[in-house]
Structure prediction request, 122 residues.
Amino acid sequence: NYITCSVIPLLERQATGFQRTSSTMLRELESLNSCLDAIFSSKVIEARKYVPAVTQVLKSGGLLSSQLAPELVHRLLRYGVLVSSEQFDLLVKLVSCALVDEKTAIMLLPLSTSSTGSLMPT
Prediction:
């Protein structure tokens, strides 16, 4: 009976820790999506509000860094590759912060060749 009482709270604490971790990851993914939505919708002022939080998480590596490349590919295919210089600057900041490991760099490499010459004239 003593073992049962001590094991159950430990499992509950582990489950609570997992829930906190997964909710944090969901918030981070939501921030990334909101930031990219704002960038590709030409809402640069709104996007700049998200950039500090998103770049901080990207610099730490983890799941968000690996999610940036597929999200960018999806959005570039959906919206096209024509971006303003302000949008391009924000995208470069995000990509630069995501380059924390070799795997992410390899995933982002095709984007560097696909967006050459895609800036809108000012």
The two ends are 74 Å apart (CA to CA). Helices lie at 2-40, 44-59, 63-79, 85-98, 102-114. Residues 1-20 have pLDDT under 50 and may be disordered.
